[in-house]
Specification:
The chain is an all-alpha fold and about 100 residues long. The protein has one domain. It is built from five helices and no strands. The longest helix has 24 residues. It starts with a helix and ends in a 5-residue tail after the last helix.
Length: about 100
C-alpha cells in the first residue's frame, strides 16, 4: 500500500475514533504502529543525545530481522499481537471505554 492509501486509512481511523469518543483506545488497538513509531523515535533520540544506538536497526521489525528472525516470523508475530490488542481494544470500547 502506498502513501495515499495508508494516509487515507489512518486518517479515517483517527476521524472515526474522534467521532465515537474512543480516541484514547486507538493506541491500544494499533499497538504495533505505536511500537514501530516509538522505536524510531527512541533510535533517533539516542543517536543524537548519547551518540549510540539502542537497536541494531530501526524501526523495530528491522531490528528483529537483523537479529536473525525471518521476515515471515516477524510478520506472523506482529499479526498475532495486533489481533489480540485489537480484540482487547474492542472489548474495552464495548465495556464503556469512552475515555
Amino acid at each position: 500500500m502506498g502513501d495515499v492509501g495508508s494516509f487515507a486509512l489512518g486518517t479515517s481511523l483517527g476521524v472515526v475514533a474522534m467521532l465515537t469518543n474512543t480516541l484514547f483506545l486507538l493506541p491500544i488497538i494499533g499497538i504495533i504502529f505505536v511500537i514501530e513509531a516509538g522505536s524510531s523515535v527512541i533510535q533517533i533520540f539516542s543517536k543524537k543525545v548519547f551518540k549510540r544506538r539502542v537497536f541494531i536497526s530501526a524501526p523495530f521489525h528491522q531490528h528483529l530481522q537483523a537479529s536473525g528472525w525471518p521476515e515471515t516470523k516477524v510478520t506472523m508475530r506482529f499479526w498475532v499481537i495486533a489481533y489480540i490488542m485489537a480484540f482487547i481494544g474492542v472489548l474495552m470500547a464495548l465495556a464503556g471505554g469512552n475515555i
